[in-house]
Amino acid sequence: MRRFTPHSWFADGQPEDLTLMPTLSPPPILSVSELSELIRELVEDNLVSVRVRGELTNLSQPASGHWYFTLKDRRSQLRSLMFRMANRRVAFRPQNGQQLICSGRISLYCERGDLQLIVEEMEPEGLGSLQLAFEQLKQQLADEGLFSPAHKKPLPPHPQTIGLITSASGAAVHDLLSVLQRRASGLRILLFPVSVQGSDAPREICQALSAFNRHHQADVLIVGRGGGSLEDLQAFNTEAVARAIFSSQIPVISAVGHETDFTIADFVADLRAPTPSAAAELVVKNRLDVEQHLDQLNLRLWRAMEQQRQQMASRLAGLERRLQHPRQQLQWKRSQLQAAEHRLLSALSHQITDCQHRLALSCERLEAVSPLKTLRRGYALIERLAPQPQRIQQACMLRAGDRLAIRFQDGQVTATVEPELEPSRS
Asked: Does the predicted TM-score (pTM) go above 0.70?
């Protein structure tokens, strides 16, 4: 492609005397494509690397993966493009209205004559891109409920197998093993070595979490590493690792960085430890603490057993006092029987005497009203036998021929009423 020289008027960089200048010939006639190509070469050759500050607007993210947007300020705007291979390295999610600093090159899209910025790097102005990505992911997962205490699983009180997901060569694994060996013996420790930084670290951490849960190999998991910069801890600030920790059926302790470092893994884990050493102290109880606890339980058990023994001894003593020899019991029963027999005889005697007394009184009262007593004084009791039995109280009740029964004190006789004995009637 030929180069376009704006002027041939200058010699050694200085213009000639205008009075001696020859008449200029008209510029050559160029096609639109030729002129566009000249402008593109001029722009791309001179603006190979630029950094532009502006507000993001009109962001478009089609299925191709490329990003199309506009950078603008108060007076101007610039069309921009970021290809898929470049935007995959962006840690945060760009949004309309953000102030960005974009690095790239200027190019001309000849088909439309559009001047555009080909962005190769992008970062938010003021807040770093990693910090912005951290805040965005934290807010997203918090809105989904991944940090809710309702989803936190309790740690087992006495785990038998502990799974470690960390670097096999880092200082964190040595700190963890040292504390675990000092504070508890007989533990089974399974180390799943992973990269804790770099592009492969999130995938390896997720694979380790999945393997432990798939085979149910541990009672509790510790995921962590030593301290570092925000870039060093980036693997624990990824969405994939956060969701893998949340999906784990085994309780997970996050032990990433130093005490002041916080990662997304810390918020989603069932428990956060400020350091790897602190995670080891949290997951197992100190041997001395366990021994003291056992001593207290032993003392409480001994006291309870001693109290129960004393209660049983006191109860046994009471039973012994109430317990008697069978001969004594027979004597006591015999005495009770004799007393009951005496009471029965006495009661019968009193009852017979009372009955005899009442009988005598009844006989006296009966004797007082007995007709025999009247007969003993010379009176007789006359009863008619026929034709109808009837006691005779008056002579007028008799008729001639009535048969009578006359009862005296010493016996009874019969008689017949004679006619001459019939009483006169007035």
From this structure: no
Domains located in the chain, CATH noted:
28-126 (2.40.50.140), 160-288 (3.40.50.10550), 376-421 (no CATH)
> Residue 362 has what pLDDT?
86
pLDDT of residue 6: 42
Whole-number Å distance between alpha carbons of 327 and 333: 10
Please give the pLDDT value at position 365.
Answer: 82
Those residues of the chain that have pLDDT short of 50 are: 1-16, 18, 421, 425-426
Q: Give the contacts of 409 (CB within 8 A, at least 6 positions apart).
A: 372, 375, 376
What angle separates helix 129-144 from helix 239-247, to the nearest 10 degrees?
30
- Phi, psi angle pair for 56, to nearest 5°: -80, 135
User: Which tokens sit at 255?
Assistant: 């032990």
165 beta partners: 192, 223
Quick: pLDDT tens for 263-287: 888 889 999 888 888 888 888 775 5
CA distance 398 to 412: 19
Q: What is the dihedral of CA 228, 230, 235, 238, to 10 degrees?
A: 150
Residue 208 has a pLDDT of: 93
